[in-house]
Structure formats: C-alpha cells, structure tokens
Amino acid sequence: EQVLSQIQLAIDDPDIQPRSFLLHGITGSGKTEVYLRAIDQVVRQGRQAVFLVPEISLTPQTLERVNSWFPGRVAVMHSRLTARQQVDQWWDIREGKYDVVVGPRSSLFAPLSNLGLIVIDEEHEWTYKQIETHPLYHARASALELGRLTGAPVVMGSATPDVETYYAATSGRHSLLELPDRVSAGPDRVSRMAEVKVCDMRLELREGNRSMFSRALVHCLKDCILEKHQAILFLNRRGASSIVQCRDCGHVLACRSCSVSLTFHSQAVYFTEGQAKHGELLCHRCNRRSRMPKICPECGMAHIRQLGVGTQRVVEEVKKLLPGVTVDRLDADTTRAGQDIEDIMARLTSGDTQVLVGTQMVAKGLDIPNVTLVGVILADIGMYLPDFRAGERAFGLLCQVAGRAGRGGDMGQVIVQTYNPDHYAIQAAASQDYQSLYEYEIKSRRELGNPPFNEQVHLVFQNLNDAQGLRQATDTGSMLMQRAQAQGLSDVNVIGPAPGVPFRIRGRYRWHLILNGRGLLRFIEGMEFPQGCTVDVDPAHVL
Questions:
Q1: 25/172 same-domain check
Q2: Between helices 163-170 and 434-448, what is the axis angle to 10°?
Q3: Secondary structure class of 115 (helix, strand, coil)
Q4: Would you say residue 208 lies in a domain?
Q5: Most CB atoms closer than 10 Å: which of 45, 162, 380, 435?
Q6: What are the Cα distances from residue 9, in Å, to 12, 45, 171, 177, 358?
C-alpha cells in the first residue's frame, strides 16, 4: 500500500518530482498488482496507460491478467500481428476505443491521446533495446523522455534491476520503491523464496556421473513428479547438440557464412529417396540449414560426433529418465514451427505438462503455483562473453528462472548446475542477493570507467572483405583520437579495433570500436562514418 500510494500521488499531482519510479521487488512480491492498481486509477480518471513487456512471448500472459481488470478495453500491439491487424489496432487506439495498450517496445508509440502512465515490466531486459534495424533506440530511455514530455509517471519494475537504473535511483533521478517480501495465497500472504542448491558439475564428473543431470537434480525431479507437482528445466541453448565434430581430425562443422559452429537439431525432418530423415544442422545466426553429413568434409572419415547439449537433448534425456512423463518444450524453435505459445502455456497451467524444458522464454512471467522445482542445466552459458554486462545478465536470468518455483503454497526448490560455483554471479543468484551483485558490479565499473560512470558508443564495421573492414575501423579510430586531441578531450577513449563476436555474420566480417567517455553525442555530432558502419549509442552489448 505504501509503495502504491507514492505512485498514486504522482498520478494525481503533476508537480511531484521525480516522476519516474524504480519498483524493485523480488519475484512473486506483487509488482504486477501494483502496476494494475496504478493503471486502474489512471483509467478511472479518464486517461490511458501503456504496459510494456520485454518480448512478444510474454504478451498473452500479461494480456490475460490486464484484461481481467479492464475487459474489452485492452489493445495489444506487436510485430506478429498482420499488417491489416496492426492498421486496425492503430486506428482503434487513436479513436479512443482502448484504455490500456500492452506489448513489447513498439507499443510505446501507440497513438494514445491522453497518456497517464507508462509501465515497464522487467526493465532490466536487453530486449527493450532495438539492435537489428534503425533507429537503435532503447524503450526505457524513450519511455522516460515520453513521460517527461507528457507528464505521465513512468514505473519501471524488476526483481533484478539494471545496474545503471538502480544507480540512477540511488542517486535521486528515480524514486526507489522496494517490495522485499514474496506474496502468496496463504493466510499470512507471505511465502518464502525457493531453496537454492548449487551443484558443482566438476565433482559430479570426478565421482563418475557423466549425465547432464546431477544426482541432486535427478532425486528432486523424481520426488517432484511423485508428489504430483510440476518442474521447469532451464537451458539457454536451443537444439540437440551445440557442436558437431569429427573424431578423427577434430574439424568442427561451421556455417560457411558466419564464424559460428552449426547446431544439430534432432527434431527437424527432411525427405531423401522417398524416406523421412530426422536431424539437420542449423546456423543460429543466419538460419542457414544443411543436412547432417555422413562423412567429415575435411578428412573424409565417418566418425562424426555431437558434443554439447541443447533443449531438444534435455527433453530426450528426461523421457529416458522418467518414462511416461509428459514433457513439453518452449523455445524459439517450437514457436517458429507453429506451436502456439498460448497452447504450450495452457498445457502447463492445466497440469497436462509435468516437465517444461525451455530457454530464457521460461524464465519470465510464468506464474504456475504447482511448479515446485526449477533445474538450471548449465548456469555457465553466457557468463564468459567479452562484455562487461555478462555477469549481471547471468545473475538476472538465474534469479528470474529461480523465481518460477514455489509460487503456490508448497516450498520451491532450485538446482543450479555449474562448472564454476565460486563465480560472483552464481553466488549472488544462489542467495538471491541483488545488493551484493550490485556492489560488485558498481565497484568494478567505477574502476574500469564503464557505464554508469561513462557513456559508451559502439561502432561496428561490416564488410565482405576482411582487410577493408579492418582498414575502415583503423582509419576511423585514428580520426576519432585526432578529433579528441584537437578538442582537448582527455577523457574520451577509443578502444580497438577488435574482431566482433562472432567475427563473421552472413558473409560479412565484423570489426568494432568502442568509445568511452562523457559527452559522446556532442563529440560525434556531424561526423561521417564509412558505409557499412553501425553507430550504436548506449549499446545493449559490445560483441
């Protein structure tokens, strides 16, 4: 009530400052309830609200919840609507037929005539940044500017706030609101967070366990099913195996257009000589597909093996471990193949699905009271990327997926499998300790001069010719350093050029530069960059 009252005061009084709020609440603490009650106040005053979610897959769940409060008065906007549907929805919103617009970042630009509130759920998610096509905007920054122009309060919510947003809140730029307790349907309305156990997979291997499942996870999974509960198994990697390698020469099959290894997808079907064959190789960067070769293209030998693990393989192993158990999968492949997210969620909600295996799509927004177990198959994925936000993102994802367990009356359990149990992000996630993660990150960033203590601009040079791309990046880097010296800007640093990760995508080589410093927008204003160069201000990643 106290948290809500502060937002309601800003809704009623246009002079209250600041008009942006960071709602920091652990998973299951009632953030959505706060959003909806604030929106209700706005709607009662005859105004409208935007409710942003980080990705399209979360829209149906959020839409159902919002619709229960405002039946028939909620519009949805996202790119999977047909062109006709998008046009019709746009005009209906413009004509005032809806009070609330729900959707991903593009929903922010809905033509609302009397905007009274903007809600950004899971504000830490990098999917709020548009990275594929121009303009390369961040919905959070755009929402704050829209709120400033219209006077509408902006509420940003997260269990694991973006480090830069939290720093801004502690510095007084946003009002910081805390929800430290988890809410349940029980008589005392407060429940405990799930118990988290970290399993060192190095020890499992030394003790003879070569399975992808630790003994603790196997034990908990069997108990969970026996007690008629449901489980979620999380692995942030699609496919059946992540690497296909020749056992004779060591050659790893890679995409001929991108410098990434091909992933084996066991459930893909193709036909040859009138017979259906299962399994194909897929590039997760350019979506190029090819058949699994019988012999190595490098040495001609037939000893090809599949290494690593993906969600398809996890499903296969669960079915072997627990025959007869109903297992479903939620990742980009299942939804792209025509399986409706709503159907998958309906089976989970009804209890028909006993075990759900998925990528980061299962980490957000799921509120299934009967899910008492979450297993993180490999927590290390993404933790060692050459990006200063890698640890923060790993922590956020682990906390989000752990928050799916124990949201009903029963105690939840989370098993986190890792080869590096001492990593600071794993330790902080295991104890659900955002503050320790924040303090580690802010100390590191202050020492290294990373945001929020400096601004950043990421320049990516893409060229079909490797040498030309490198020359463009080198020449631009020299020009930027000369410009900084000429203007006497000693705090502007040019880092690079360095090869991108991955180095080649769709046949184009990638070299990048990073600009660090203050006042970078003014510094690069009016500059002309080579063709094929992308300039990203405040980048979501620097790969």
A1: yes
A2: 90
A3: strand
A4: yes
A5: 162
A6: 5, 13, 21, 14, 41
Identify whether residues 505 and 469 lie together within a single domain: yes
Answer yes or no: is 542 within a domain: no
> Which residues sit opposite 537 in a β-bridge?
457
The reply to whether 210 and 264 lie within a common domain is: no
**299 and 278 both lie in a single domain:** yes
Predicted local distance difference test score (pLDDT) of residue 375:
95
What whole-number distance in Å separates Cα of residue 219 and Cα of residue 201? Answer: 15
User: Which domain range does residue 424 map to?
Assistant: 190-238+309-446
What does the pLDDT read at residue 307?
62
* Residue 97, both tokens: 């037929």
Q: What angle do CA 372, 181, 54 make, to 5 degrees?
A: 70
How many domains does the structure of the chain reveal?
Answer: 4
The better pLDDT of the pair 435, 338 is held by: 435
Tell whether 288 and 327 lie within a shared domain: no
| Separation of alpha carbons 489 and 483, rounded Å | 9
pLDDT of res. 505 = 85
pLDDT score, position 184: 57
Residues constituting the chain: 543
My answer on whether 9 and 135 are in the same domain is: yes
The structure tokens 């006497």 sit at 488
Torsion 528-529-534-540 (CA) sign: negative
138-142, 182-186, 340-344: the lowest-pLDDT one: 182-186
Tell whether 288 and 156 lie within a shared domain: no
pLDDT in tens, 194-219: 899 999 999 998 999 989 899 999 99
* Residue 180 half-sphere exposure toward CB, CA atoms < 13 A: 4
User: What is the Cβ-side half-sphere exposure of residue 93, based on CA atoms within 13 angstroms?
Assistant: 25
Angstrom distances, CA of residue 10 to CA of 58, 116, 119, 165: 28, 10, 14, 19
Question: In this predicted model, what pLDDT tens digit does every residue of 92-107 receive, in sequence order?
Answer: 999 999 999 999 999 9
**Residue 441 domain-assigned?**
yes
Q: Give this prediction's pTM.
A: 0.86
Quick check: 54 and 104 in contact, CB under 8 A? yes
**Bridge partners (DSSP) listed for residue 505:** 508
For residue range 264-313, list pLDDT tens digits in order.
Answer: 776 544 334 444 345 688 877 777 888 888 888 888 887 777 666 788 88
Residue where a domain stops, chosen among 131, 150, 180: 180
